[in-house]
Amino acid sequence: MSAPLYAEIGYFEPWWMQIAKALAIFLVVFNMVPMALLADRKLLGRFQHRYGPTRVGPFGLLQAVADIGKLLFKQQFVPRDSRKWLFIAAPIISMVTAAATLAIIPFSDTVDIFGVKTGLYGVDPSIGILFAFAFGGIAFYGLMLGGWSSNSKYSFLGSMRAAAQLISYEIAQGLSIIGVIMMVGSLSLVDIVTWQEQNVWLFIPQFVGWLVFLVAGFAETNRPPFDLAEGEAELVGGYFTEYSGGRFAAFFAAEYLNMVVVSLLFTTIFFGGWDVPFWDQPNWIEPIVVLAKMWVFIFFFIWVRATLPRLRYDQLMSFGWKILLPLATLNALVTAVLVVVLD
Amino acid sequence: MAEFFFFLAAIGAVGGAAGTVMLRDAFYSVLALVTHLIFLAMLFLLLRAEFVAAAQVIVYAGAVMVLYVFVVGYVGGLEAGLAGRSGPALRVISVLFAAALFVELTIALVGTGLEAINTEGAGYRAPFGEPSEVGRLFLTDYLVAFEVASLLLLVAAVGAVILARRRSGLGDANEISVTDFLKRDELTKGQGETGEMIEAGGPRGI
């Protein structure tokens, strides 16, 4: 056989290393979810001049564990008129799509582990960031099926809002990245970080792109001020109104995991990933740098939640289509011209 | 490993396609089509066509099918399902058409001379299927087709806007919006008032 088959070409690591690092990345980042949950409650408390949870564990640090434990032991109610299979599948889709994006986040470049050359990322496909958008597209079905199969008006309206918001802002988000891709000349997140290591963090030359990506990221994760999908005053709880127990916990965890993933994407695409400027950092510290930068963004998410009131639904839509989308398009256009002129 | 994924994707794709045609409930039918498209993307991945696979999922599963789901969700699955009249004549004709299509496809497939069908297949060259290679081909070998396709899409987009304006009779060009569309009586059962959160009228049948 002269050349290997298309499908038989693997990546350069042995199979056990791929499994090991997949587990490691998933476990580390997934454990950020209860921490983000706790940070959310503690910080929101502080922003509102109260203590937040203090009872469970020292300083209330085990509150998130208690929350999750409570939810897991509750009854998992399935409404009689719901579409049962879809109702059960929806939170799973949400979780899987949220977790899948973790695969492309680079925590460091290639390093030696026990003499095996290993990239500290799940995979580095040539489609890079498109991988994240693909799973973002599928995430729509988690929300939509959850709301539709519940057979309840509140759920349905919540899912319609969430889905409309998701697809509207995904376009702006996709366009805001194009400037970055043109400057770097690659879709791969590893290449994007390496480029930033050698040149400059991309939020400086791509300032407009970064802002659009930031706002769209808020909308994509259904975080305040864009959390109309679960506007308590109008819709009870949005698409997960009818959910309880573990399935509700899955939706909830997916939302926080999305926040973590979007923070990681901010870090990677616009803030240099594992790079620390003016310092030739050792390899082992790079994953910690990425996680530290991620926490800055999670703090920012919570800060915004505590500060800004919720938008009105038509304001949200017209903002996405009439401001963000033209802005992102303009940014892509200007960047294209500049890249050609300066080259 | 490759065989396992091939058969998984192939069975999934065929099953999804069959479900699209055979399921009575429009909502499930749309979902079956989504499944079909996702498994197709998996087949593309097995051929190392990474960009095509991503585009397939983003454009078809993530955008086109979303519109289908919206429409079926809002307008509501038909309670009685899509049970049409199926007389004996219709059945005979449908079988005839299916057979004709099968013959046609067989001729097309065999006629191209699938020379590689008993071999290991073509070898893998490094940039194959990557976005850079696809982009290079678009802007060199297939430039005309690429530009014509984008022109076609532009015409379609403009046409859609014009049709939407004419149908709903909007006065001002500034007023074309999803909100206005949702305000229409058939979606809100006539309960939508100006200034209200109009989508609260709710879908039919729930």
TrEMBL record, chain A:
What GO molecular-function term can you cite, just one? NADH dehydrogenase (quinone) (non-electrogenic) activity
Any one Pfam family match given in the protein's UniProt record, by short name: NADHdh
Q: Which reaction does it catalyse?
A: a quinone + NADH + 5 H(+)(in) = a quinol + NAD(+) + 4 H(+)(out)
The subcellular location is: Cell membrane; Membrane
Protein name (Swiss-Prot/TrEMBL): NADH-quinone oxidoreductase subunit H
- Annotated membrane-spanning segments are 15-39, 85-107, 127-145, 166-188, 200-219, 248-272, 284-303, 323-342
- Per its UniProt record, what PANTHER family does this chain match? NADH DEHYDROGENASE SUBUNIT 1, NADH-UBIQUINONE OXIDOREDUCTASE CHAIN 1
| Subunit structure of this chain's protein | NDH-1 is composed of 14 different subunits. Subunits NuoA, H, J, K, L, M, N constitute the membrane sector of the complex.
Q: Which family does it belong to?
A: Belongs to the complex I subunit 1 family.
Q: Which gene encodes it?
A: nuoH
Q: What is its EC number?
A: 7.1.1.-
Name the InterPro entries for this protein: NADH_UbQ_OxRdtase_su1/FPO, NADH_UbQ_OxRdtase_su1_CS
UniProtKB/TrEMBL annotation, chain B:
Keywords noted in UniProt? Cell membrane, Membrane, NAD, Oxidoreductase, Quinone, Transmembrane, Transmembrane helix
Q: Which Pfam families match?
A: Oxidored_q3
Give the chief site where it resides: membrane
Q: Does the keyword Calcium apply?
A: no
Q: Does the keyword Chloroplast apply?
A: no
Q: Where in the cell is it found?
A: Cell membrane
How is this protein situated with respect to the membrane?
Multi-pass membrane protein
Output this protein's name: NADH-quinone oxidoreductase subunit J
Species annotation: Solirubrobacter deserti
